[in-house]
Structure formats: structure tokens, C-alpha cells
């Protein structure tokens, strides 16, 4: 059979790792698919002509940063009838519906395993193994950079700034890390997972997200005494009145399975009545690991079972609408610095009580003008917690703005 | 499009759960595949005629116990051009090569996700996501019954017999549990995983296995003091001179990721230079969970991408032979009851030293005629450990046969 000519867009860490892996595994790919793969053209920021590369290729691998150029290239590739494999989560979380639909019309494959959780096969499992399953919740750790930073802060009690610098030194955080540490990267991935899990369009604008930039060594130390570990958690879940998709720092009980996922590893749990739960974990980043996920998609796209215009390109949509729910219940950790006068705790408790919630546990530290209260609050609506925090912040005994962080504790949720 | 007529062989726990799940998810399967599924015939031990069911079906789901009837039915179904989905690990670990080849010739799908680790998608990940990856090792917990028994023995310090009775009471162990507790079930699963991981035929006869019937509450209690947890571990790994596939009880360091997999859950880790490692875990047994894995295979078999005679039926084979290695290195826990006389430890140490190994740690308990020595021995060939144990057993100061159990401690392996 003919060679498989691959046009490679992008030649950074993942792009060059993919080229090397492909050379190493070419024989194996030929055994599996009957076609020997070769890189027929490479587009980098400075070199290569996209139109010429497209013309000379059978399949396009898109590994560039940013959305606009990638959108144009992927769109044009699909329109030209090329199978496409991409690792671009921002692209799919913005233009996925359009691209999946276009791929369906043109009968080409659009692979995107590498866009979420690197080589952890969560996309394939949702699209194929669990396609017929009514999924209740997908949640986990989907950003390796922030998990590395939080792991380092937990392990060494260092500051956020020092942990970020260390991650940058190790090559796990970019010089401009805002997409990772601000939560946008994880939000894009959760939009894609929610799209597959619930069969409704979910875009990054539907995802509420917070990052880890404001987390302090003090937050982590305070919570350790309560047996809690901090992670950046992405959640996509079915609620009574719709779905919620969100990313935020959260304290987990130290015995929670996700609490022991450390370093740059990712882990995703899928829950459903029919399967109980499946958890998948592994490296969420890294050139060679992401390149392996891309290669898996390339092989799948050209396997005899699929290379005939009959495709498994994308998510289907359901007839029933599922609205996006913005305000959900959560337990909370609340840290307040107070001047310790009679009635302080009663006043705080009352404000929380007025919002319909109660306090699970309180630890007081220090005395006099610089006392600290660390509380865990039973589940309440996020909007009502925000109201309580605002009112508490107005008390004259408050010494600094209260700090609220969500707690995931299956025990009482 | 036409209905999808499913012939169901077997109507036990999994078979009846599958029929119920299919009825519940029929609409969704139709959305995904364009065909509405229905059960067109059921074969049970007492009722139904196989030939008539085959004639009236488009796809056969085989969920019966035992090998011989299942072999005949599956063979005949493939020959008649029917796609087949089976959960029968014993069948595939004995006749897989023949059936995969037959399916390839006839251009039909043969799905077997449910044969290993229930709904944990390890088969799909090995066959598809990692098809082009050079895999070094697959290992994990692939039998839920034994994991439940060992978890119970660890949690309550009860005897093997009491834990087995409890598992039987809960419906997690059969009245004749020998396939599970003797290791044959896990061995069949590891044969299938090794077949997919290494692209060479592996049959259950190639798998060396031991069960958990001889494990005592004392073994578990002794090891706990050393920070070790007992699991039944299946391993398929590439060695310098071939591959080793084996199942045996093993002590794990309490911090090992598999040490915290409890109850009837399964967990499998796949290792390779290109992916580092991926771990998948979830329920390894249970009617509805296994039925979910079967349904995933049914959907995959009839998806438009595949339902055209171009198949992804089975493992390919490699040109290079990989011999099965029978004798591998392992660290060991060794428990001996001795009359405590001068020179006892020196004599034991010398026998182990003569076999080329050394002792990592020793704990002595008791004194006089009923002392106990609990040792951890650095990695050595299993055959040489067996020689040392035989020689140690002949010393006149030995009070009962020495007990040796493998230890998996990545720290010094």
C-alpha cells in the first residue's frame, strides 16, 4: 500500500517528539495499518508553506500554540478531505462543534486524545467504551503544571512563587504560565470532557474557573491540620436541573483517591450508575507522552476499520437540552483573621446560618488582636457563601479579607 | 435502518444484567449506531436452540460459563459471519489465536473488553490507544474476588476461610471458588493482556500462577509490621531474554499505588518508555458493570466506522519470537519458626548467601523453642530461592515448613 504522508504543523516540544517517535515506530505503524508513515512537510513559525504542506499530505497533525491560525489550518485541512489529529484544547473548546460537524460532513477523522490529559486515554474511553453509558460525573486533575506546583507547595511548604519558579526551571511551566495557573487550560479540557460525557455543546465560556495564583503556603499549612490536601479540580456533573462544568482549587480529604496524585500526573474519574466508577491516571504533559497520544490517534485514523469515509468523528447530540447550571453547592474552608473579642465566632456563625448553612469544625489560633479562625462549612450554594463572606468581611473585628476555598469531602457531600 | 438482533448465550448474573441494560439504553444505542438493538433469542442451560438463535441474530453475545460449549458456539457464530462479543477469559486464553484468526478471515468483530477487569477499559486501550507503543510491562490486580478476600483479611485480621465465607455471602465468590482463589482466573486474564501487549501468542499454559488459599492471618500480620500489604498480582513483562507472565500473591510497600486498591476493584498499570505509565482502575466484577463493558463492545462492533467488513478484530503478531521466561528475579518475604539456638540466623543467612542473595531486614519474635524469624530478602531468582528454602527446611532447628512470599518493592527492584 501507499505511504502515509503526514503534514506536521508545529515543531516545538511535542512536534519534535512526535517526529522522533514516528520515525522510531514507523515499522510498527505499517504492521498495524498497512501504510508506512512519513513526515511530508513541517510548518514552523518561520518556515514552511501551509498550502504546499496540505497538498502533499494525507493526514495533518496540528501541534501549534494559539487558536486562530490553528482554526484556519484545521478547517482547511478537513475541507480538503484530510484526516486531522490535534492536541489543541483551546481550539476544540471554542470551535469544536463547527469542526466536528465539518469532519462528519466530509467523512474524515478528527482525533483529539492528546488535547486532554496527555496519554491518559480519557477521550477514547468516553467516545467509545462509555458511548452508551449515562454518565453522572467526570472529575479530576487535568493540568499537570498546577498539580506539580501544588505538590511542591505541599511537600516543601514553599510559597506559590517559589514553586512556580521551580516548575519553570524543570520545564513544566512556561515563561508566561497564565493559561495553566489561571485555570483556562483546565477549563478548556473540562469543556471537551463535558461535551463528550453529556452530549450537549459545551464551550469554554460555559465553564466557570479559578486558578491557583492566590493560594498561599498558609492555606496549605492550615488545611493540613484538618487532614486536607489542596488540588486544582475540574468537575463536569449532571445535576437535577442541568449540568455544571467548573474548575477551582479544592481541598480533598487526604484519603481521597485524587489526593495522592502528585507531580505532573493527571487523573480523571468517570462515574455512572452502570459502571460505578473508572479512574485513569498517568502523565498529563511531557513531549514524548503527548506525542504517544497523537500517534495513537494517527493509527486509529488510518486503521482499515476507519479509512473508508465511514467515521467516528465526533460527539453526537441529544434531543433534550441540558442547561448549564452556574451556582452549585459546595463545602467550604474559610479562613478569617480577627481581633479576638467576645461574640466574634457567634457573629460569623450567624452570617453563615442566615445563608442556610452551618459550621462543621473550627480551629482557633492565636489570641488578642491577631487571632485566626479556620473553619470548614457544610455544603451550601456558592452564591450564598459569597454573600456570607461579603458580610463577614464588613465586621469591624476583621483584620484581612476572609479566604474561602472549596472542600470536596465525599463523606458529607 | 434495520434493527440489530442480538442472540444472547447465557442468562446468569451478567446475562440478565446485560438484557436489562440493553433495554434501558436502546434509544442511545440507536442514536450512536443508527440501529435499534433487541434481544432476538436467549440460550440458557435448559432452554433455547443455538442454531435457531444464530439464524435469527445479527450479533452474538456469549456469556456462558465453561470453555467447550462456548468455543463451539463462538466458532460457529464467526463462521456464520456474525459479530461476537464475549466475556469469556478462559475461552480466549485457550482458543484466542484460532478465534481471532477466524474473525479476521471472515471480516467480523470479536469484542472481549469484558473478559479482563470488567468495565476497566484495559483491552481497548491496549488494542487501540497503545497499539503502536512498545510496552515494557503490564501489571496489576485483575481478580476482584481475591482482592476482596485479602482486603477483608487485612482490615479485620480474620482468617482466609472466614474472609472467603464473607465474600460468598456477599455474592462476590462462587460456591466453588477455586478458579478465583487458585489464580486460574487471573492467569487467563494475564495471558490475554500479555498477548495484546507483546504481540506474541500467549496461552494460559504459558502463565505460572499461584493462588491465595495458603495465605494466613499470620502472614498478613507479620508483614504489616514491615509496612507491607498483600495483594494477588498479575505481571506480564518484557525481560532481556523474552517475556514473563505470572500471577502470585505479593507483598507491596504500603505506599505502592496498587496497595490502596481495595474490595472487589481491579487496577492495571501499563508501562512504557514513551508513556511512562498509565493506570486504570474500577470495578472488576459485578453484573451491571460487566454488562456495561459488553454493551460498549456491542456499540463498537456495529458503529458505522466498523460495520463494513473492515475490522479491528484482533492482535497482530510480530516477526521476532519472544520466548516465555519461566524463572525470574523477585524479592522475598521469608517466615521461619525455629528453636532459638546460637548460630540459627547465621545458618539461614549462609544458605541464602550460597544462592547469591542477601537479607535486607530481619525481625525476631519470641524466644527459646518457639522463636519466629521474619525476613525480607533482596531480589534473587525464584528457582534459587526455592533451593535455599528446601535446604533451610532440613535444618533440625526448624519447627515448621518455611513460608516464602514474593515482595514487590520498587524501591530496591
Looking at how many chains there are and whether they match, the oligomeric state comes to homodimer
Question: What share of the residues of chain A does DSSP label as strand, in percent?
Answer: 25-35%
Tell me the major beta sheet of chain A: 10 strands, mixed
Helix and strand pattern of chain A: EHEHEHEHEHEHHHHEHEEEEHEHEEHE
For CATH, the homologous superfamily of the largest domain in chain A is named as Dihydrodipicolinate Reductase, domain 2
Number of strands of chain A: 15
> Quick one: which chains have the greatest interface?
A-B, 54 and 54 residues
Shape of chain A: elongated
Number of helices of chain A: 13
Helix content of chain A: 25-40%
SS content category of chain A: alpha/beta
Distance between the termini of chain A: 57 Å
Low-confidence stretches of chain A: 306-313
Radius of gyration of chain A: 24 Å
The CATH class of the largest domain in chain A:
Alpha Beta
Structure description:
Two copies of one chain form a homodimer. The first copy, chain A, has 413 residues and is of the alpha/beta class. Chain A folds into three domains: 4-118 and 287-302, NAD(P)-binding Rossmann-like Domain (Rossmann fold); 127-282, Dihydrodipicolinate Reductase, domain 2 (2-Layer Sandwich), CATH 3.30.360; 329-408, ACT domain (Alpha-Beta Plaits). The first copy, chain A, has helices spanning 13-33, 50-55, 68-79, 89-106, 122-129, 144-156, 160-169, 178-181, 184-198, 217-225, 287-302, 344-354, 382-393; strands at 4-9, 37-43, 59-62, 83-86, 110-111, 137-141, 208-209, 228-239, 242-253, 265-272, 276-283, 329-338, 359-365, 371-381, 403-408. In chain A, strand 1 (4-9), helix 1 (13-33) and strand 2 (37-43) form a beta-alpha-beta unit. In chain A, helix 3 packs parallel to helix 4 (89-106), helix 4 runs parallel beside helix 9 and helix 12 packs antiparallel against helix 13 (382-393). Mean pLDDT of chain A is 91; it is low at 306-313. The interface between A and B is large, with 54 and 54 residues.
Amino acid at each position: 500500500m501507499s505511504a502515509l504522508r503526514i503534514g506536521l504543523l508545529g515543531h516545538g516540544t511535542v512536534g519534535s517528539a512526535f517526529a522522533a517517535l514516528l520515525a522510531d515506530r514507523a515499522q510498527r505503524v505499517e504492521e498495524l495499518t498497512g501504510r508506512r508513515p512519513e513526515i511530508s512537510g513541517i510548518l514552523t513559525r518561520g518556515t514552511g508553506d501551509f498550502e504546499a504542506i496540505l497538498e502533499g499530505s494525507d493526514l495533518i497533525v496540528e501541534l501549534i500554540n494559539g487558536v486562530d491560525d490553528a482554526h484556519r489550518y484545521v478547517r482547511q485541512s478537513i475541507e480538503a478531505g484530510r484526516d486531522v489529529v490535534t492536541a489543541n484544547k483551546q481550539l476544540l473548546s471554542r470551535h469544536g462543534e463547527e469542526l466536528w460537524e465539518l469532519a462528519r460532513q466530509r467523512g474524515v477523522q478528527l482525533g483529539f486524545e492528546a488535547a486532554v490529559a496527555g496519554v491518559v486515554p480519557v477521550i477514547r474511553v468516553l467516545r467509545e467504551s462509555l458511548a452508551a453509558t449515562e454518565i453522572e460525573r467526570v472529575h479530576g486533575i487535568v493540568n499537570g503544571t498546577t498539580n506539580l506546583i501544588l505538590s511542591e507547595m505541599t511537600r516543601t511548604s514553599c510559597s506559590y512563587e517559589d514553586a512556580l519558579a521551580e516548575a519553570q526551571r524543570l520545564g513544566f511551566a512556561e515563561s508566561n504560565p497564565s493559561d495553566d495557573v489561571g485555570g483556562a487550560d483546565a477549563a478548556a479540557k473540562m469543556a471537551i470532557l463535558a461535551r463528550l460525557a453529556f452530549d450537549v455543546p459545551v464551550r469554554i465560556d460555559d465553564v466557570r474557573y479559578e486558578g491557583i495564583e492566590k493560594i498561599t503556603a498558609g492555606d496549605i499549612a492550615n488545611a493540613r491540620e484538618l487532614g486536607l490536601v489542596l488540588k486544582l479540580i475540574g468537575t463536569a456533573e449532571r445535576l437535577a436541573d442541568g449540568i455544571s462544568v467548573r474548575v477551582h482549587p479544592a481541598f480533598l480529604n487526604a484519603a481521597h483517591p485524587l489526593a495522592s496524585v502528585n507531580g505532573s500526573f493527571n487523573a480523571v474519574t468517570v462515574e455512572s450508575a452502570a459502571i460505578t466508577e473508572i479512574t485513569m491516571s498517568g502523565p498529563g504533559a511531557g513531549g514524548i507522552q503527548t506525542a504517544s497520544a497523537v500517534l495513537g490517534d494517527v493509527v486509529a485514523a488510518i486503521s482499515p476499520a476507519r479509512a473508508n469515509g465511514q467515521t467516528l468523528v465526533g460527539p453526537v447530540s441529544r434531543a433534550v437540552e441540558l442547561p448549564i447550571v452556574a451556582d452549585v453547592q459546595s463545602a467550604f474552608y474559610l479562613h478569617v483573621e480577627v481581633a479576638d473579642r467576645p461574640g466574634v465566632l457567634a457573629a460569623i456563625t450567624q452570617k453563615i446560618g442566615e445563608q442556610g448553612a452551618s459550621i462543621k469544625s473550627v480551629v482557633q489560633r492565636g489570641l488578642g488582636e491577631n487571632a485566626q479562625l479556620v473553619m470548614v462549612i457544610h455544603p451550601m450554594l456558592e452564591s450564598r457563601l459569597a454573600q456570607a463572606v461579603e458580610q463577614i468581611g464588613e465586621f469591624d473585628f476583621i483584620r484581612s479579607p476572609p479566604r474561602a476555598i472549596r472542600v470536596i469531602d465525599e463523606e458529607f457531600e
